[in-house]
Amino acid sequence: MSTIAEEINSQIDAGRESVERTLGELRKMDVRSLPPAAYVAAGLVFTGVAIGVGWLVYRSRRRRTLVQRLQEALPNTVRDLPAEVRSQVKRVRAL
Fold first, then answer.
1. How far apart are CA 79 and CA 71, in angstroms?
2. What three-state secondary structure class fits 1?
3. Euclidean distance between CA atoms 68 and 71, whole angstroms
4. In the prediction, which pLDDT does 83 show?
5. End-to-end alpha-carbon separation of the chain, Å?
6. How far apart are CA 64 and CA 54, in angstroms?
7. Which of 21, 38, 46, 95 has the fewest beta carbons under 10 Å from its own?
8. CA separation for the pair 31, 58 (Å, rounded)
9. Band of the pLDDT at 53, cuts 50, 70, 90?
């Protein structure tokens, strides 16, 4: 097996062990000892973190269009040119 595959498998195994340890600790806890407000707070925190991570992944994976990238590269003064000048540039470009 290649070293990359072995490294991935070792990371997967470590993750599984971590999850199994956490589940074992959760089973040992007395569920009745936690107040209901703790469940709500934990749910809200988990939801907030999940939304934040999801948003970051979405923003990093979303590809911007060519027009968006060009507009960000151009200074504001070029974007604010009058319509007549822009139409002249378009006509010159068409030739």
1. 8
2. coil
3. 5
4. 72
5. 59
6. 18
7. 95
8. 35
9. very high
Which residues are CB-neighbours of 64 under 8 A, at least 6 positions away? 72
For residue 56 the two structure tokens come to 């970051």
Q: Which two three-digit tokens encode residue 22?
A: 């956490």
Give the residue carrying structure tokens 């600790």: 25
Q: Are 71 and 79 in contact (CB under 8 A)?
A: yes
Residue pLDDT, tens place only, 55-85: 988 888 878 788 888 877 777 766 666 777 7
Instruction: List Cβ<8 Å contacts ≥24 apart for 40-47.
Output: none
Q: What gap in Å lies between CA 17 and CA 23, rounded to an integer? A: 10
CA separation, residue 81 to residues 67, 69, 72, 73, 89 (Å)? 17, 18, 15, 15, 11
